[in-house]
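Re: the 361-residue chain
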Amino acid sequence: MKTVQRTRQRPPGRPTFPLRERRRHGRSITVGIIGTILFHLLFVFSLPSSYFLLDPSEGEKPYRQFDIEIISEPEEEEPRYVETNPNAADNEPDNADNFSARNQQAANEEAPDDLSPDRTPATEGEDLPSNKIISGDLNPPVPSMAPPQEEEISQDSLPTTLPSNPEKIDPLPGFEDDVIVDDEGTGMTEAEESARPTEAEELVEGIEADTNDDRPFAVESYEQTQRPVPQPRPRLPRSPPGPIRKQSSGVSATGAVAYDAKFSQFGDYMERMIEVVTQRWHALAESRSYREISSTVRLEFRLHEDGRVDELVTVDTNSRALGILLCRSAIEQGAPYSTWPQDMRDVLGESQTITFTFFYR
């Protein structure tokens, strides 16, 4: 038989730490902490002082700057007045931001090398802020009289100074025998000179002529009644004189130089107003024998629907005082200008800001 022996195990008891062992263990931890601190202190103090100085260039850290801008919807470009060529054909463009006194399509006299992005024609002129493409003359045209029309005149319509049957008219009574006929066949009657030719003793009635001619004996001649009368001339479009702008790029179409522009009543109004102001400006300068070279005067004013002008200010100028005064007078002395028609009021409102630029050359 096998016998099984059982061993009896005791339960583990609590660990016991003597007081000396605890003190030794705490002392070692404290020594380790102190040693670590001393080591780091020695390491820091052993480093050179330049190690702790920072480079100024390294201290400025690069950063990005952001500008926040609120973008609104792009405003539509307002129509601009341009001076058109009166010699160009009337042809309305499909799209045009310009308005004027007539319809025209942009064209150049010659094909340019480059095309302009805004479809403005190529012109040769001066490097000035001007939009003129032609320079005209404001001298009044010489009125021409229409030649008289030649009409066939019948003999019945010609007036006479004698009746149609003069041989049947009797001479004055008492002088029938005193008829002298000269060599040329012209007859005349001689009468004795009266002492008082302006007075008569009695009324003497004439003898009725034996003729059917009831027309008067003395009328105006045909040449006097048919005097030529000049016919009223229509207003001819004229371009005021001024410096032409300089631009090398142009449009592909060739012909009379012109802008893309559409007719409007305001364009026709502005053309007439510019012509009036330019004429007065030239007249004022000539009356004072004023001459100035290479100067510009830019004025801005408010034009109202009834033709009044106010808020006239000088925007930019390099002219003398008299030159500025002549430009201001040319605008102010013409006011009030014509009243706007109802169509212009519906489109433009009660007033518009106008800018005029005067070039002394």
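Confidence is low (pLDDT under 50) at residues 141-147.
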